[in-house]
Input
Amino acid sequence: MSDCRTLPRLRYVALCMFLMMTVGCSDSSQQDVPKLRIATTTSTRDSGLLDVLLPEFTKSYPCDLSVIAVGTGAALKLGREGEVDLLIVHAPEAEAEFMADAHGQQHRPFMKNHFVLLGPPQESPPLKQLSIHQAFEYIAKNHLRFVSRGDDSGTHKKELALWQASNTDRQFDEYTETGQGMGNTLMIASELRAFTLCDAGTYLRFQQKIELSPVLSDQDPLENRYSVITVHPGKNSQINQEAAMKLFDFLTSAKTAALIENYQFNGQSLFTPVSP
Output
């Protein structure tokens, strides 16, 4: 009798041990999946491009992705502090400084588009025949409202460079800084009927939501180049050099160039791949 009563209990214990082993294997396999931390500019997120590229990457290299979308300045800071493994940024001078200070290991441009000066349609015509530097000077001298991201992003860095190149003081009463990302800044600029600088990709995604139209683009000073940087593995033991290099190789590959070239929104291309 005791043997018969013990048998179900033994089966129960064996079943519990099997389930514990199964769960343990599952947890172990999850822990074995490499983790990859990415700091990227908000424009790659807001444009929707990352939703195309990253799933393609994980098909060939399964990993646990952690994506932080911030301005380029904040992304570079995360890289300097060793808080991420890879950066996608768009501020060439700041990138060059980052590499010169040995914070990065590999650095390569992989796509581009243009910045666009946007403005309220009723106030834009006088600026359309000007150079971008002349347009910035015109905005300041005529006290037209201008909304800046003011967040040390790649777009903000470009805007500051344009003010400097135009020999114009941006500290006029109608100049406003949001301290926010591109999407929110566009919405605020539209509400205020103000001029603003935006990357072409985000503008195309938001153009149906705002009452601003392109004033100037496609001028050489408005080129917007995006680069990928792997953070130097000497930062700390948490840097996943192997996973970062896998994504670096993927983003600079012919396959990704085709994905970027074919990525459109409402029939319009948002980015153009660039050769190394």
Observations:
- The chain has eleven helices and twelve strands.
- The chain has two domains: 31-113+225-273, 114-222.
